[in-house]
C-alpha cells in the first residue's frame, strides 16, 4: 500500500495553470542551461524541457519505490526462513558458518 507524504512545500502560481518559476528553474538547471539562456529558448522547447525534468523525477521516484518494495519483500522472506532461532542478516545465517545455507 503506497501512502503519500506531504512535505508542506508548495509553489505559488503567478498565472493559473502556468508552471511555477521554481520548477522551471530546476528544469533549466537539469538541462544545464543558465536561466538567461533558458528564457531565450522557444516556449515549445521550454515546455519539453520541463516535461523531461518531471518525467526524470517520476522515474526516479518509481525506481525508489520498486527498490523499497524489493527490500521489504526480501526482508519478509528472510524472516520466514528463520529456523531453530538462527536469524538471517545480509543474506547469510547469523550464528552459523559463513558457507552454510
Largest sheet: 2 strands, antiparallel
State the end-to-end CA separation: 32 Å
**Number of beta-strand segments:** 2
The portion of residues forming beta strands comes to: under 5%
User: In sequence order, what are the helices and strands, one letter per element?
Assistant: HHHEE
List the total number of helices.
3
Indicate the structural class: mainly alpha
User: Averaged pLDDT, please?
Assistant: 81
Widest sheet, order of strands: 1-2
Low-confidence stretches: none
Helix content: 40-55%
In short:
With 101 residues, the chain is mainly α.
Describe the overall structure.
With 101 residues, the protein is mainly alpha-helical. It has a domain of 60 residues. Strands 1-2 form a two-stranded antiparallel ribbon. The longest helix is centred in the middle third of the chain and has 38 residues. The mean pLDDT is 81.
Fill in the keyword field for this structure.
about 100 residues, two-stranded antiparallel ribbon, elongated
Give the SSE layout.
Blueprint: H1 21-30, H2 35-40, H3 43-80, E1 88-89, E2 92-93
Antiparallel strand pairs: 1-2
